[in-house]
Amino acid sequence: MKNLFSVKGKIALVTGGSRGIGKMIAEGLILNGVKVFIVSRKEEACIDAAKDIVSKCGGECYPIIADLSTIEGIEYVMKQFLFKENHLDFLINNAGVSWGSSIEEFPESGWDKVLDLNLKSMFFLTQKLIPILKINATNNDPSRVINIGSIDGIINSKFDNISYGISKAGVRHLTKLLAKELVYKNINVNCIAPGPFPSWMLSTGVGFGGKVEGVDWSIIGSENPRSRVGSIEDIVGTTIYLCSRAGSYVVGETIVCDGGMVACS
Question: Residue 3, Cβ neighbours under 10 Å: how many?
Fold first, then answer.
């Protein structure tokens, strides 16, 4: 039981890994001995993030620039990954986007953009990567797929982000459907539903203009039962639990990581 939470020597692919929760997860995995590939649509941001992660954490972090909202982009990710590796241990489906508008004015483009990236890409990327997720997976040490959902897929959000909440509710059910099929291939699928974390997405929603540093997150934290926003330790700890031997018997579940917001709603 000494190495119950060890993930050392594993290989992970983290989508949306250039900022926010995705970058937190990438940093945490690397600090625990995982080789990480991050995926982002914006080339400069993805390359800079990979460099920053290595500078802060050491280890290995490789950028893959691709638009995951298209099948072509998903296939490109797989192709680029296979240039360097022949198997994958952890797939962290984190890439996501939101769109704010009232019901009366909500555009089709805001629906399609959010559902394409938040839900469709999650299914098809997982589908394409099944063959390499199976390679090193065993009964006691399965490969992992972790889908990053949101509490907005469980309870109603205070923001006008209709398609976002619907997409994240879909992520919860997609997790169960994938888990049912892939558990027999030694691939465990689970979901993490975060609450408020210091990220570009939340920053834009609460009026911080996208800034993560130099803003007073305690204002947002004061509305949380734990009186704070989430930290890198919170999201990384949950991720490592699910990826390690400690979480290898957990299948098809959604773990809420929100400081009690859902429980107290």
Answer: 10
**What per-residue confidence (pLDDT) applies to 158?**
84
Does residue 211 sit within a domain?
Answer: yes
| Domain span holding position 90 | 11-257
User: Which regions of 30-139 does DSSP assign to beta strands (E)?
Assistant: 35-40, 61-65, 90-93
pLDDT tens-digit series, residues 153-164: 999 988 888 999
Domain count, the chain: 1
Give the Cα separation of 87 and 65 in Å (integer): 19
Residue 262 lies in a domain: no
Average pLDDT, the chain: 96
Could you confirm whether 62 is annotated as catalytic? no
* Helix (H) or strand (E) segment spanning residue 11: strand 11-15
- Give the CA distances from residue 143 to residues 160, 166, 194, 213, 244, in Å, rounded to whole numbers and listed in that order: 36, 28, 22, 35, 10
Q: Which helix (H) or strand (E) holds 13?
A: strand 11-15
Q: What is the pLDDT, as a whole number, of residue 74?
A: 98
Looking up residue 252, the CATH number of its domain turns out to be 3.40.50.720
Q: Which residues of 41-56 are buried (b: 16+ CB within 10 A; e: fewer)?
A: beeeebbebbeebbee
Angstrom distances, CA of residue 110 to CA of 11, 115, 156, 167: 34, 9, 18, 12
Instruction: Classify residue 2: in a domain, yes or no.
Output: no
* Residue spans of the chain under pLDDT 50: none
- 213 part of a folded domain: yes
Question: Could you say which of 164, 184, 241, 249 is catalytic?
Answer: 164
- 126: number of Cβ within 10 Å: 20
